[in-house]
Amino acid sequence: MLSPHELATLMLVKDDPDQIGDRAELDTLLERHLIKLEQAEDIGLPRPRITENGNSILEACSRLR
Hints:
By secondary structure, the chain is α+β, with helices and mostly antiparallel strands. The two termini are 18 Å apart. Helices cover 48% and strands 15% of the residues. The mean pLDDT is 89. The protein has helices spanning 4-15, 25-31, 52-63, and strands spanning 35-39, 46-50. Strand 1 (35-39) and strand 2 (46-50) form a beta hairpin. The protein is built from 3 helices and 2 strands, in the order H-H-E-E-H. The relative contact order is 0.20.
């Protein structure tokens, strides 16, 4: 089960990964394989990207509305 903060962070990673910064929730999302870190070519720093599992979680949440 994801906390509200983890779910919100997952939404931010999907919508605008460059604005995430350093959040504690990223570690949990990485451990659960909901996001992955990819090397950004333009700035040279790792950038979070949503995985297929992470996208499935967000799709399931959107169906609950």
